[in-house]
Design brief:
single chain; about 450 residues; alpha/beta; Rossmann fold; 6-stranded parallel β-sheet; 14 strands; binds nicotinamide-adenine-dinucleotide
Length: about 450
């Protein structure tokens, strides 16, 4: 078997994808996962996340022997030429990235590498600028006998299309001071044919945060346009279409709705704000991006209360729990925030999601069952199958024919034809200005 010997520490979305894809590219990969139950399930070929194609790829390479999983670094690290750190970096209480998993992994690396080992340690986790340099120093102190080189190699994959994103990346970022380490990483990624940006480790680390903050900013921007569109009688989807056709702007991340969420954008923006505070750098634009996002759930609740009166004691149907369609991840999901806010207001929540589950709510796998007795239906995650629901059938199930399309993902005309009051985000039904134009 050819290829390099690689180790991947941490088997979350990123680690699993990195491990399976490098095995697919012909390398021999050992995946180290400290959670015993997870490691056992992975060794049996069961992948604990709903990521299209990942389990099949994982099983294929377990079977051909190019991929294996273990729980202890001592088993997985010896012989590795490159070690990818793919551990979690959740937010600490102050918003900054909690790097305890990174430092634990560093101790594991220092403890488990045999004498004479010289692997490249590549940080794939999203970490604040300075972390790669600190890791380099830490490893040098712990194991002065080894010639370890640390590089920052941030990952840009998206959940729901992780394999395609990894195997057809838009760019590979390699932040390394050590020329040899950078060359080893560049060679690993060469078959993917993507442009490679070689830079300082700190630039690579900041660039990852900058990308996520910019994506969040686009969504917050279009959500502000949505509120203005509602006020003046415009349609934000038409506004976004015009913006998106400008090549300087592009169409991605211009969907108005309940706001951004998930395991990355919220925590990374919080970490960036904490970084700015730490360095005393004013970032009013970034602060606004976060504030506007928080407003979206509150705005929807206000709209609901304006339509049905007090929310307490009423049942609402929440279509969607995952932070976006195509995955089962509910971390920092706006849909979950809305569900919890409804419960805090005394309402009962029946939810539908084809993949995600949450112990907080009554969750159905059938959108019609979740709609029974509902005071209003709310689309909180734009699952594509919901664009073709049977509105006639729903009409006979709900208590009140009211739908709030918080993702602009439903067939509003069909809903109206079936007798529903249909309201979307940033799209006033009449096309009439809701307020008199401002002159002067
Ligand atoms: N999820 C995404 O879409 C995505 C995309 C790009 C970047 N990232 C970044 O990549 C990193 C990982 O994200 P994730 O979603 O895969 O995280 P995750 O929390 O789902 O997975 C991390 C895994 O690492 C394991 N782990 C922690 N310490 C370990 C150790 N010392 N030894 C072995 N295993 C250990 C944990 O048990 C867990 O299974 C984060 O920094 C994240 O911000 C995530």
């Amino acid at each position: 078997m050819g290829g390099r010997r690689l180790a991947v520490i941490g088997a979350g979305y990123v680690g699993l994808t990195v491990a399976a894809c490098f095995a697919h590219l012909g390398h021999r990969v050992r995946c180290i996962e400290c959670d015993g139950a997870k490691a056992l399930s992975l060794a049996r070929g069961r992948v604990p996340v709903a990521e299209p194609g990942l389990e099949a790829l994982w099983r294929r390479h377990l079977a051909d022997g190019s991929l294996s999983v273990c729980q202890r670094a001592e088993e997985g690290l010896p012989g590795a030429e490159v070690v990818f750190l793919c551990v979690g970096t959740p937010p600490a209480p102050g918003g900054e990235a909690d790097l305890s998993q990174v430092w634990q992994a560093a101790e594991d690396v220092a403890r488990a590498l045999p004498a004479g080992a010289r692997p490249v340690v590549a940080i794939k986790s999203t970490v604040p600028p300075g972390t790669a340099r600190r890791l380099q120093e830490t490893l040098r102190c712990l194991r002065p006998d080894l010639g370890l080189a640390v590089a920052s190699n941030p990952e840009f994959l998206r959940e729901g299309c992780a394999l395609a994103d990894f195997l057809r990346p838009t760019r590979i970022v390699i932040g390394a001071d050590d020329e040899e380490a950078a060359a080893v990483l560049e060679e690993l990624y060469r078959p993917l044919g993507a442009p490679v940006v070689r830079c300082r480790p700190d630039s690579a680390e900041l660039a990852k945060y900058a990308c996520n903050a910019f994506l969040a900013a686009r969504i917050s921007f279009v959500n502000e346009m949505a509120e203005l569109a509602e006020a003046v009688g415009a349609d934000v989807t038409e506004v976004a279409a015009v913006m998106g056709l400008d090549p300087r702007i592009g169409p991605a991340y211009l969907e108005a709705g309940l706001g951004w969420g998930g395991s990355c954008l919220p925590k990374d923006l919080r970490a960036l704000l904490a970084l700015a505070r730490h360095h005393d750098v004013p970032v009013p634009l970034l602060e606004g991006v976060a504030r506007t996002n928080t407003r979206q759930v509150a705005r929807l609740l206000e709209r609901l209360a304006g339509l049905v009166g007090p929310l307490s004691g009423k049942r609402f149907c929440l279509w969607g729990l995952a932070f976006k369609p195509g995955c089962d991840d509910t971390r920092d999901s706006p849909a979950m925030a809305l569900g919890r806010a409804l419960q805090e207001a005394g309402a009962e929540v029946w939810a539908y999601d084809p993949l995600a589950w949450a112990p907080d709510f009554v969750v159905h796998r059938d959108p019609y069952r979740a709609a029974e007795g509902a005071e209003a239906l709310v689309l909180a995650t734009a699952w594509p199958e919901l664009s073709a629901v049977d509105w006639g059938r729903l009409r006979s199930l709900v208590r009140r024919p009211l739908v709030l399309d918080a993702r602009n993902g439903l067939d509003g005309e069909a809903a109206r034809r079936a007798g529903f009051v249909y309201l979307a985000v940033g799209r006033s039904p009449a096309g009439e200005p809701a307020t008199a134009p401002v002159e002067g």
